[in-house]
Design brief:
219 residues; Rossmann fold; 2 domains; 8-stranded mixed β-sheet; 9 helices; 8 strands
Length: 219
């Protein structure tokens, strides 16, 4: 008898839309490992790993005894030093929850179009617009994101593994990045939230050259 929830695939899609693939993977695996043990994590990987490659990678870490990786925002903060505007392409709640509070004077925008899994953006943005942060975080469309460009502006997206030559990004990044964009923003930062290569075909993601980024920083 399976120890996994009957509608796990659907639940994971919802979580990935609201939290991001890596954040949702760690949350789901943490809950399943705590409630049903590593045998359930192995079953999770066998049943859903090919459909959700980041979940597969995270499950493999748990099964090898590595557990949940620590998130270090310091290299990203160093790369963003001196910027005034940050435009985020993609969503990884666990990483942004550590990064954005450390950038109190930076105006933050989220590209809210072009994602494969669309969240309820009002709810997502509300997580970053309460109290003293109200008005600092904005929804940005594909048609006007270049208004955020400038010598003190940066683009940030999330990378889901790769090698020394290519990395995997959300398809949303392809709607934003380009040679002209690179000249308009001070920095194009890729934050690798997986590390290493995915074990299965990188479904949900597009392959781009590592060299298209100003910096690629590890998880």
């Amino acid at each position: 008898m399976s120890s996994l929830p009957s509608a796990f695939g659907q639940a994971f899609r919802v979580a990935a839309a609201e939290l991001g693939m890596a954040s949702a993977s760690q949350l789901m695996i943490r809950e399943i490992a705590g409630g049903a043990g590593l045998e359930a994590v192995a079953e999770l990987r066998d049943r859903y790993g090919r459909e959700f490659p980041v979940l597969d990678h995270a499950a493999a870490r748990w099964l090898s005894g590595e557990g949940e990786p620590a998130i270090d925002p310091e290299p990203v903060l160093a790369a963003l030093q001196g910027i005034e505007r940050l435009l985020v392409v993609g969503l990884e709640a666990a990483h942004l929850d550590l990064l954005l509070p450390a950038l109190p004077a930076v105006e933050v925008g989220f590209i809210t179009e072009g994602r494969a899994l669309m969240p309820e953006w009002r709810r997502v943005l509300a997580n970053y617009t309460s109290g003293s942060d109200e008005g600092r975080v904005a929804a940005v469309g594909l048609s006007d994101f270049q208004l955020w460009a400038g010598p003190r502006a940066a683009l940030l997206t999330f990378i889901y593994g790769g090698d020394g030559h290519v990395v995997h990004v959300s398809g949303q990044w392809l709607r934003v990045a380009g040679p002209d964009v690179r000249t308009q923003f001070r920095s194009l930062i890729g934050w690798d939230v997986v590390g290493g290569e995915l074990h299965v075909y990188p479904r949900w993601f597009a392959e781009v050259a590592r060299s298209t980024f100003t910096k690629v920083l590890g998880s």
